Amino acid sequence: MARHTFFAPLCIRRFFVAKKAWPLFIFFIFLFSLDGCSEPSDPEKIVYPRDEDLFAIFPNDLALGDSVDAHLSTGIMMVVHPGGHYKLSFGVDSTHEAPKMQLFRVYPTPNGKYGMSKIETLKPQISGGRYVFSFVCEENQRSEWMLTLVEDDDYYKGRTPNVQFEGDGIYSDTLSLNLISVGLIESIEGAPSMDSLARLLVRAFRENYSTFVIDTIYVNRAENHPTLGQNYPSDKHWHAGVSSQDMSLSELGNWPAKGVESALDIVLVHRIEELNVLGFAGLFAANLVGGMGSTVVVGSHALSASGERPLAAAEIVKIAVHETGHFFGLRHTTSTWADLEGYHDLSILEDGLEDTPSCPELLRSGLYKKGESTGARDYYVPNRAYKMMDAAGYSIAFNPDDCPDGYLVMFPVSSEKTMKSFSGQQLKLLKRNLMLIPH
Ligand SMILES: [Zn+2]
Question: Which domains does the chain possess?
Answer without folding.
Answer: 9-168 (no CATH), 174-434 (3.40.390.10)
